[in-house]
Design goal:
The chain is α/β, with parallel strands linked by helices. The chain folds into two domains: 2-93 and 291-308, Rossmann fold; 94-283, 3-Layer(aba) Sandwich (Rossmann fold). The protein is 30% helix and 17% strand. The protein contains nine helices and twelve strands. The protein has helices at residues 12-22, 74-77, 94-112, 115-123, 147-158, 181-191, 211-216, 234-242, 293-308; strands at 2-6, 27-30, 44-49, 65-68, 88-89, 139-143, 162-167, 177-180, 194-197, 221-225, 256-261, 281-283. It has a seven-stranded parallel β-sheet, sandwiched between helices. It has a five-stranded parallel β-sheet with strand order 2-1-3-4-5, with helices on one face. Helix 1 (12-22) crosses helix 9 and helix 3 packs across helix 5. The longest helix has 19 residues, at 94-112. The chain starts with a strand and ends in a 15-residue tail after the last helix.
């Protein structure tokens, strides 16, 4: 049996080595080579992929499973020729979940403490203490309450923040005021002094954070996007950061006080993007929850064994739902 492998990251060799260690009896075919020394594409029964060119999976007649090498599956589901009868799994790795929670906690604290404002003041050699807000008096809204959202909630709850959560369907999480649906979305926006986006990219979430959503947030709020770039309308975000508001307490005006963006519709972010140079936007290069070969390989190997044994794989994607 053979496994198709496609990993466009700079650590692809480390991923391949880890997977080969956990599946020592399998032959790995590295895209675009679908044929092995003694076989052809029909030998491939499983695929480990990230942003594989469209149409490739449909050319593999004996696939029993497809596994994303990351938590997101929107690139896979965007393939118009995707074989819909083959189960697809997303990568759920506790290490990735912890990494996301660390990133979100650090970024929430950065904005909560006003460190972005102090960075700008420091660049101008301005010594000024600004008004502080204590964690119980700051509402953080988590948009997306999957496993990563729950872990982020645990970390932020331990720091004493007032937490609101929003998801498509109803959920219950200790210490979080959980909301859902269209009405719940509006309520969550109205409470979100710091909005953390942890949503999958679906038809419902694309462009979800637009001018209307930003206007519904409190004056001086922050946005943290750890999901997908397509969830945020960048032009509307910049307008909300720049728009002059009467009686604004923000030193640089604008309805929103700032944003941290970790995901973009096109990556790497183009050098001429206005996001790079905006004084109230901080950019990180999609690092919030990097997957790690050493911990992911055993999880992925177990998925292969389940599929080949005719057992149900874990963390199977709802193709119609988009995640």
């Amino acid at each position: 049996m053979a496994i198709l492998f496609h990993c466009p990251w700079d650590n692809a060799d480390a991923w391949l080595a880890a997977l080969q260690h956990d599946l020592p009896h399998d032959e790995f075919r590295i895209w675009p080579d679908l044929d092995g020394p003694d076989g052809d594409a029909s030998d491939i029964d499983f695929a480990f992929v990230w942003k594989l060119p469209h149409g490739v999976l449909a050319s593999l007649p004996n696939l029993v499973g497809i596994a994303s090498l990351g938590a997101g599956v929107d690139a896979l589901l965007g393939d118009p020729d995707l074989p819909r009868d083959v189960p697809i799994t997303r990568l759920v790795d506790p290490l990735m979940t912890d990494r996301m929670a660390e990133y979100v906690t650090a970024t929430v604290l950065h904005h909560h403490l006003g460190l972005d404002v102090y960075d700008r003041q420091g660049a101008e050699k301005q010594w000024q203490r600004n008004r502080t807000t204590d964690a119980p008096d700051r509402t953080v809204a988590l948009f997306g309450l999957g496993q990563m959202g729950e872990r982020c909630a645990q970390r932020l709850r331990a720091l004493g923040f007032d937490l609101v959560g929003w998801s498509r369907t109803a959920k219950e999480i200790s210490g979080v005021h959980c909301l859902h649906g269209a009405e719940g979305f509006e309520e969550a926006l109205a409470a979100a002094e710091i909005a953390v986006l942890l949503l999958p990219l679906t038809a419902e979430t694309e462009n979800l954070m637009n001018a209307a959503a930003f206007a519904a947030m409190p004056q001086g709020a922050y946005v943290i996007n750890c999901s997908r770039g397509e969830v945020v309308v960048n032009e509307d975000l910049i307008a909300a950061l720049d728009s002059a508001q009467p009686n604004s307490r923000q030193p640089n005006g604008g309805h929103l006080a700032g944003a941290t963006l970790d995901a973009f519709a096109v990556e790497p972010l183009a050098p001429d993007s206005p996001l790079w140079t905006h004084p109230k936007i901080r950019i990180t290069p999609h690092i919030a929850a990097l997957s790690a070969a050493a911990t992911a390989a055993p999880i992925l190997a177990a998925q292969v064994r389940r599929a080949r044994d005719g057992e149900a794989m874990h963390d199977v994607v709802n193709v119609d739902g988009g995640y």
